[in-house]
Amino acid sequence: MNTSLQTAKLMLVMLLASIKLASARPVTSFNVKDFGAIGDGINLDSKAINKTIEAAANAGGGTVYLPAGNYLSGSIHLKSNISLFLDQGATIIAAPVSVENGYDDEEASVNTTYQDSGHSHWHNSLIWGENLHDISILGQGSIWGKGLYKDYVKGKQTANKAIALYLCRNVNIRDISILHGGWFAILATGVDNLTIDNVKLDTNRDGMDIDCCRNVHVSNCSVNSPYDDGICLKSTFGLGFARATENVTITNCEVSGFDEGSFLDGTYKRTKNAQYGTSPTGRIKFGTESNGGFKNITISNCIFNYCRGLALETVDGGLLEDVTINNITMRDIVNAPIFLRLASRMRGPENVPVGELRRVMISNIVAYNVEPGQGVLISGIPGHPIKDISIHDVKIYYKGGGTTAQAERTVPEMEKGYPEPGSFGVLLAYGFFIRHVEGLKLDNIELKFLNDEQRPAFIFDDVKTAELRFVRADVFGNISPVSIKNCEDVNIFQSLNLANGKLKN
Predict the structure, then answer these.
(1) 178 — alpha (psi -120 to 50), left (phi > 0) or beta?
(2) Residue 351 sits in the same domain as residue 425
(3) What pLDDT digit, counting tens, does each position of 393-403 carry?
(4) Domain end position, chosen among 308, 327, 350
(5) CA 228 → CA 134, 209, 255, distances in Å?
(6) Angstrom distances, CA of residue 389 to CA of 174, 198, 314, 320, 325
């Protein structure tokens, strides 16, 4: 083959490659610096960013591009068919909250009766969108909610969320990092077809609240939130009616409660919780707000590190049903590693019946160094049992140290109380406390304690139709591994060194 032919073929290959590369790039891109953004962290850039978004929307859509720089900003208004792309080295910084810095006021909400102010307003945010479709927030850049309030402040403009979306569809949030996200780093209410992928949140309150949403995929995310929940599913009355959060997958994620900021900077400090006399939160939770309930949800391949345990709660009349949870590792857990709660707080319209918690399967869990106050806590209320729960292939190492006095205390029902494991006080069992449950299977469970433990491994109270198969637990001295009362049809097979058959009250 002659040289000229080889050269021609090489040029053809390069041309085809350039065409392919060009097709992968955004067809229409709008650089915020072309519209007046400075990116020096001193001058306010939100007007320029919003002007860029308007131009892209007027052109039928496209990518709003933020190159490397620090963009001091008030409220940013998303539009349909827009991707907000933060390049590596680009940071949107929330300016101090003031009229001069261009934050939007709280909008008139549907209601503020059955949920707090944070779940009733969306416009008072750094980045927000309402009634939009086909929007994205992308890139290796970051958002720093520096000027955001952490709570509701009466009488002031209260910009307190990093990203808030209301009644949107077809939404992607990928690859970004958020530091100090305010009351919510990400709040999505009534959002359908939502994907949150490879996002890092290191924040002072909730990491992401997914409220009344359908068809949601959360994957490959790391959420550090020492003072509130990490990945939280909710179903408030914020839409003005009860709507379930349903068809949700959460996979390959990590939640933690290290000091705020120390996750993103890689120091993983644990000093501030001890200083303030609190324990970290940082968990995956369903609830507390649960008017519409939760349905068809899968959680898999997740890590809990120095935080509270998994919590599934329905206390406001919603149905929590058809949930699978698989392949979870936990370390340094500060309360119940697993908490299932059905109760009757009923923060919602009158005459709504008590909800249901049913058909939940939890498997392949390893938890190490769990605090001794609350073991696995599964509790309905009198007349309203949790139903059809299966837990298998679980190994938990508790710190131990429980006393005889703790084993004899009375655990309150807390029917209308806030659903938090710590509210029940130290439990009578170090391993599993199960009350008001109907239809329970425990299979291949192993419980250990790291220090002597004066409480039994299991307490069953008002439990009907339960099976224990291949269950093993450390016991101290002559303490019985299990105590039951008011129970029916509790069967045991090759478990706890007890004879096979029915356990007696």
Answers:
(1) beta
(2) yes
(3) 999 999 999 99
(4) 308
(5) 30, 11, 11
(6) 34, 31, 15, 12, 12
